[in-house]
Write a structure and sequence with these properties.
Blueprint (H helix, E strand, L loop, with lengths): L4 H13 L3 E3 L10 E8 L3 H13 L5 E5 L10 H12 L3 E6 L9 H19 L5 E4 L4 H5 L8 E2 L3 H5 L2 E4 L9 H7 L4 E6 L11 H23 L3 H11 L1
Parallel strand pairs: 1-2, 2-3, 2-8, 3-4, 4-5, 5-6, 7-8
Protein name: Polysaccharide deacetylase
Organism: Clostridium algidicarnis
Length: about 240
């Protein structure tokens, strides 16, 4: 499967053609043949919004998991907050993307404490109830324990990794042929993780995508500074002369 928006829409259409109902972690048991679409937002809210719009145009909803402990975006900044609220307005759900390595965690009780604490922070930022959590680069300990949290669904519980056929495009690589699996109709329950960061209008390899992301970050920093520093063009010009 290509990492293009066109190919992504084709995947949605194939799932529909095969009779899958798009559902959430809360309502999957209402359907006989279901697929849960999940997106971990590791890097770019803007790319996540693109996928959210595409899904809305194709009349489906999914869950977008937001990482609080990231250097790439800030859920309390106006720009980031507006994007997340637009994703919600398109009918999608926002969940917590949790990085266990952010804390010193040695027990399930400690894990639950921090998951609940971060969930409340995200709820405060968005004014929406956080109902589910996904783990950022989950450890072996997380994967081997069937962990349940009070009031928050763990997308890495055995229910969603064993009872469902789990498919992921992590590191821009499908470990299994997602198109062939959907087309085969062998599984009545699918759990599909995609990362919006990898998708674009045209086919690009990982190197091209990362270089573009780094280049765009330079532009973003310039415009952020321009909003806060008067006469930045003149300042930078003088700096270049001295250099």
């Amino acid at each position: 499967m290509d990492f293009t928006y066109e190919a992504y829409v084709e995947l949605i259409k194939l799932l529909k053609d095969k009779g899958y109902d798009f559902c959430s972690y809360l309502n999957y048991d209402k359907y006989k043949k279901t697929v849960i679409f999940r997106h971990d937002i590791d890097n770019s809210l803007e790319k996540a919004l693109e996928i959210a719009k595409i899904e809305h145009e194709n009349n489906i909803t999914s869950t977008f998991f937001v990482l609080l402990s990231t250097n790439f975006y800030n859920v309390f900044s106006k720009e980031s907050n507006d994007i997340l609220k637009e994703i919600i307005a398109l009918g999608h759900e926002i969940g917590l993307h949790f990085d266990e390595k952010r804390y010193e965690i040695s027990s399930i009780k400690e894990l639950e404490y921090w998951v609940v604490k971060e969930s409340k922070v995200l709820e405060e930022a968005l004014g929406e109830k956080v109902k589910s959590v996904s783990m950022h680069r989950p450890s072996k300990w997380i994967l081997e324990n069937d962990i349940y949290f009070e009031g928050i669904i763990n997308s890495y519980s055995k229910k969603f990794l064993s009872d469902f056929k789990y498919l992921s495009d992590s590191r821009m690589h499908w470990r299994e042929d997602v198109i062939a699996i959907v087309d085969s109709e062998v599984y009545d329950r699918l759990h599909i993780l995609t990362h919006a960061f990898w998708y674009a209008d045209n086919n690009e390899n990982m190197e091209e995508k990362l270089k573009k992301f780094i280049g765009d970050a330079r532009k973003e920093r310039y415009y952020y500074l321009k909003d806060n520093i008067r006469d930045i063009e003149e300042i930078i010009s003088e700096f270049n002369k001295k250099d």
